[in-house]
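Changelog note: in this version the structure field was regenerated for every chain. One regenerated record is shown below for reference.
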Amino acid sequence: MKAIWLLAATLPAYGQVLRLSTATVEHGSSGSLRLTSESPKGKEPAALQWVITLPSYGKIKNPRWTAGASAQGSGKTLQCGETRNAQPSSKSLKCVLAGGLKVIPDGEVAVLEFDVASDARRGKVPVSLMDILGATPDAGKLTYRAEGGEITVK
């Protein structure tokens, strides 16, 4: 019993969640996914970093990020770029949302807009969300639980 309590005490507590929405998009059109943050009171981030991965078989093209309402309201700047990926059949984008010491309130922190190729096959395309880092205004580390999203191509 003592070992179970010790194990439970050493597991990270994920009070913060970064969540990617879902989208349904027609062939040859555009869509968007919303990235939202939820944090316990007093544990809101001043900066965030994350990586998303899009599988190439989904034929999701021209991914582009913009800062969401919560990020804009707290004066943050969003920078994203393609990053190396261990899986050549997918594309990964790393983003950093930072600027100043103001915290980012719960809500929409970023929006991912994208195009779906006209020859994309129908079905569900998972969008992975990983490698999340959060920082408090005093440079404390925040641990996040990631909830990836999904694009349904019709």
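Spot check on this record: DSSP finds two helices and twelve strands in the chain. The chain has one domain: 14-153.
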